[in-house]
UniProtKB/TrEMBL annotation:
Highest taxon of the lineage: Bacteria
Protein name: Aldo/keto reductase family
GO molecular function terms noted in the UniProt entry: oxidoreductase activity
Recorded coiled-coil stretches: none
Alphabetical list of SUPFAM superfamilies matching this protein: NAD(P)-linked oxidoreductase
Location of the NADP-dependent oxidoreductase domain: 15-314
Species for this entry: Candidatus Synechococcus spongiarum
Length: 330
């Protein structure tokens, strides 16, 4: 069935994770604390019951003065769990390499603040993006700081985010020499953002080096969820993107709907299982209990090799449609 947790060293990671970028984000997701906090905490409880026990967050998640709100909400949810359930939850957080976070000790206060918001040590601490493009001299000292977090017990493992294949090889080699193996790298990956699986890409490097790939935005901001049309799309920035791309996606979404019906699922379930079929751990953003139900159902099945290949072919001309993260390194 494919729903068993994976072992990443000392970490147990569910095969489908939960992305929490929207938790506290007003800009793209219209977050309102009074309305959304109770909803998100109920969503957290539903995730635990469904076996979705791997959560990804970041110390920068939360718009403006709400920075850190995603971690705080996770901390509240964790505090309400019985000890046995709490121990089965794995939390990954990303620390942002802001210009004022300098040197080997640049993440010390940030990591401590994340632990305080979460109410526990960090399971997987990740460098949110590489500084190679604007301050290459910062990267190694900051990574040394993350390795120190593991050695001092503030985190269990180290991961990366938004790194390309060349940078990934270099950092993975450095960490192996330092005696703290790199466990994961997190990149944008979906049917509309397939750069990681190109020859020599991040996915190939991960498979070669035994590093886990975490796929963020596997639903392409909701474009692959199957619930929107040109006449019914979100407001704001997402709406502009949807209006431009949805007309081109109709054949693919129709195919995904047909596959979903065969599995008693939805296009969103097909989208995340396409990521799984390529050996990644997708972390779709979940804000409502209905989203949780879809992902719980998706845990119970996998695409066949033929279905995956059919989707690969159908998405070939759409594989680079999504805007890329400007912090992604080479």
């Amino acid at each position: 069935m494919g729903g068993e947790d994976q072992r990443w060293g000392t970490l147990a990671v569910a095969p489908i994770g939960v992305g929490t970028w929207s938790w506290g984000n007003r800009l793209l997701w219209n977050y309102v604390p009074q309305r959304d906090d109770p909803l998100l905490l109920h969503t957290f409880q539903a995730c635990i019951k469904a076996g979705l026990t791997f959560f990804d967050t970041a110390d920068s998640y939360g718009t403006g003065k709400l920075q850190g709100r995603s971690e705080s909400l996770l901390g509240q949810g964790l505090s309400r769990l019985p000890p046995g359930q709490r121990q089965r939850v794995t939390v990954a957080t990303k620390l942002a390499p802001y210009p004022w976070r300098l040197g080997r000790h640049g993440f010390c206060k940030a990591a401590a603040a994340s632990r305080q918001r979460l109410g526990r040590p960090i399971d997987l601490v990740q460098l949110h993006w590489s500084t190679a493009r604007y301050a290459p001299w910062q990267e190694t000292p900051l990574l040394q700081g993350l390795v120190d977090q593991v050695r001092l017990g503030g985190a269990k493992a180290v991961g990366l985010s938004n790194l390309g294949p060349r940078r990934l090889r270099r950092v993975a080699g450095w960490m192996a020499d330092a005696g703290v193996p790199l466990r994961s790298v997190q990149v944008q990956f979906s049917l509309l953002s397939q750069q990681p699986r190109q020859p020599g890409g991040v996915l190939e490097v991960c498979q070669e080096l035994g590093i886990r790939l975490i796929a963020y935005s596997p639903l392409a901001l909701g474009l692959l969820a199957g619930q929107y049309t040109v006449k019914h799309s979100p407001s704001g920035f997402r709406g502009l993107l949807f209006a431009r791309l949805l007309p081109r996606l109709e054949p693919l979404l129709t195919l995904m709907g047909e596959m979903a019906a065969d599995h008693g699922s939805t296009p969103a379930g097909v989208a995340v299982n396409w990521c799984r079929a390529h050996g990644t751990v997708p972390i779709p953003g979940l804000r409502h209990q209905r989203h949780v139900h879809v992902m719980e159902q998706a845990l119970g099945w996998m695409l066949s090799a033929h279905e995956r290949q059919t989707l690969d072919q159908a998405s070939r001309n759409l594989a680079t449609l999504m805007p890329q993260n400007p912090f992604q390194s080479a």
